[in-house]
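Input record (one chain):
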Amino acid sequence: MAGMSYTMTDTTQLSTAECYGIALCELGEEHKDVVALTADLAKSTKIGMFGEKFPDRFFNVGIAEQNLFGVAAGMAKNGLVPFASTFAIFTAARSLDQIHTDICYQNVPVKIIATHAGTSFGQAGSTHHSLIDMACMRTLPHMTVICPCDGAETYNAVKAAYDIEGPVYIRINRGFDQVIYKSPDECNFQWDKASVMNEGTDITVIACGSCVFEAMQAARIAAADGGLSVRVLNMHTIKPIDKEAVLSAIADTRRIITVEDHEVMGGLGSAVAEVVASSGKACAFRMLGHQDSFSTIGLQEDLLAMAKIDANGIAETIQEMMHADFEADDAWDDEF
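The corresponding structure, as predicted from the sequence alone:
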């Protein structure tokens, strides 16, 4: 934990990916069964930090992502706890068969750290944008899906992954996220419970990953411009989702917006919508994200703005949602 202490001048060196590297090295110290694997992306994903410290427990399979996960599954079947890392799109699209059959079907403890998710590698274009990975991973039996909001939360998620039963998918960005928590201790991370980032009674914004910071900024804009009380939930764990947090939001605010740097179909928005539908209680509901479309090429901040999942876009949707009306009695008596 001491390795995560830093000042503002250190933040560029302590990106989300750097924090993941630190956490993995600490796990290596604590547990001799931890091994790490890469597909020739040791430097880009920061898993190379583990390789430098534990060269005899580090394996580079070359540019062969499908082999990466097949080898990791074999190691897990033989009593090891592999942490395998590559870009999120290579994980979800190129290697889905191996993750489905070798890892999830056998329910082995392979922990996947998928980097450069969403549009965080914006300049690389659609071949490197990952807008479908959460949809793929949350449909796989036995898979836990986590999408941390910053470096400190990533640190905690990686440490927690070791103790979570079965396979785990942790989705992080290229590494240049905003600092939300000053230290891992501050975020009080519980992997299966959403974190309340801002209390509110008028409307709830449920976000994950880099969109958590944008949602917090939008809540401040809505409070300053319209006096609105906006609840912000950091839904870092997409599967299993914190149903209680969603149900409380329905009961308390009756208006919900989900925000994700991902396709709206199959990701956070769909997961929340499933909870809303099964509850039998009505609410005004809007899913923000990429709307059945590929993203163009550019800097991530521009791409978030174009998709209306930056602070201004979320604040605009909050204002629109506040005009949604309910029954005059506002009661549940006539609802299932």
